[in-house]
Amino acid sequence: KTDANGDSLWQEHKVVYIMMEDLWKYISNPFCSKLTITISNSILRRLNKRGICIYDVSGRLVRRLPLSNVIEWDGKDEFNKKLSCGVYFCVIQVGKNVFSQKIVLLK
Questions:
Q1: 8-29: string of b/e by CB count within 10 Å (b at 16+)?
Q2: 87: number of CA atoms within 13 Å, CB side?
Q3: What tens digit of pLDDT does each residue of 62-72 get?
Q4: How far apart (Å, rounded) are the C-alpha atoms in residues 58 and 63?
Q5: Which tens digit of pLDDT belongs to each residue from 2-35?
Q6: How far apart are CA 55 and CA 27, in angstroms?
Q7: Are the C-beta atoms of residues 100 and 89 closer than 8 Å to each other?
Q8: In percent, how much of the chain has pLDDT > 90?
Q9: What is the DSSP code (8-state) at residue 50?
Q10: Could you give phi then psi for residue 47, rounded to 5 degrees?
């Protein structure tokens, strides 16, 4: 299959997958006080405008982070309440693809 520009959709998915794998390499994980995510312009252009979502292990959305080249999460929820230590999931949507990465918040 091809997209509107005649490019292979499989090739597009492969490129996005490789870009996301590269993105996860540069996340400071585990983290204590601040999680920093650096996103290149090529990835940023493809991201869903909803931003990056942080979920707890129960699947509850705890924080939505706006998109930019450098995104920082301070371990707090939407109400500025410090979250407990543990496992969270950083979720990014690129087109119809959803990518997640387990992140660990330490004391």
A1: eeeebeeebeebbeebbeebeb
A2: 6
A3: 999 988 888 88
A4: 14
A5: 445 444 444 444 555 555 566 665 577 788 888 8
A6: 16
A7: yes
A8: 31
A9: T
A10: -75, 150
Give the DSSP letter of residue 9: H
Inter-CA distances, 87 with 1, 27, 40, 80, 98, Å: 38, 15, 26, 18, 19
pLDDT of residue 78: 95
Nearest CA to 105 out of 64, 65, 51, 55 is that of 55
Model pTM?
0.74
47: its two tokens: 């991201």
Integer Cα distance of 77 and 63 in angstroms:
5
Dig out the tokens for 82 from the structure: 């410090």
Tell me: pLDDT of 75 over 90. Answer: yes
Dig out the tokens for 98 from the structure.
Answer: 């959803």
